[in-house]
Design goal:
The protein is mainly beta and 129 residues long. Helix content is 8%, strand content 38%. A seven-stranded mixed β-sheet has the order 5-4-6-3-2-1-7. Strand 2, helix 1 and strand 3 form a beta-alpha-beta unit.
Length: 129
């Protein structure tokens, strides 16, 4: 993520004392593309999907070339569950109950940083959100 002097501060998600810089997928076009077509994802970076309401959103890896941890969060920003997805698969991952947010990180990040169901996330979103 490259920042200029006029760029707003990057958005971040902190869980279990671990912080990750995230791009926001907060519109339908951004959520549709997500991390598709990316060849790499730097450590401690990811994408935060923000939905208008909680639901059982399925995620899959069509046109996604990197393995990802899909971390579902409820309306209170608590982890519901984590799925690790291989690249380029059309199998889906769904939350155990309705999710309002989804955090995508490089596969293995959830295990490496001990991110588990029930843990609370804190968001710092750029652009005054």
């Amino acid at each position: 993520m490259v920042l200029s002097r006029t760029s707003p501060p990057p958005s971040s998600v902190t869980i279990n004392g671990q912080s990750f810089q995230v791009e926001l997928a907060d519109t339908e076009p951004k959520r549709t593309v997500g991390l598709m077509f990316r060849k790499e994802l730097p450590e401690r970076t990811g994408m935060l999907f923000i939905f208008d309401k909680a639901d059982l959103y399925p995620f899959w890896m069509q046109n996604t070339y990197i393995s990802l941890d899909i971390i579902y969060l409820d309306e209170q920003k608590r982890i519901i569950n984590v799925c690790t997805m291989p690249p380029l698969t059309e199998s889906t991952c769904r939350p155990d109950r309705p999710a309002r947010y989804v955090l995508e990180l490089s596969a293995g990040s959830a295990k490496q940083y001990n991110l588990e169901p029930g843990q609370q996330a804190e968001f710092r979103l750029s652009g005054g959100r």
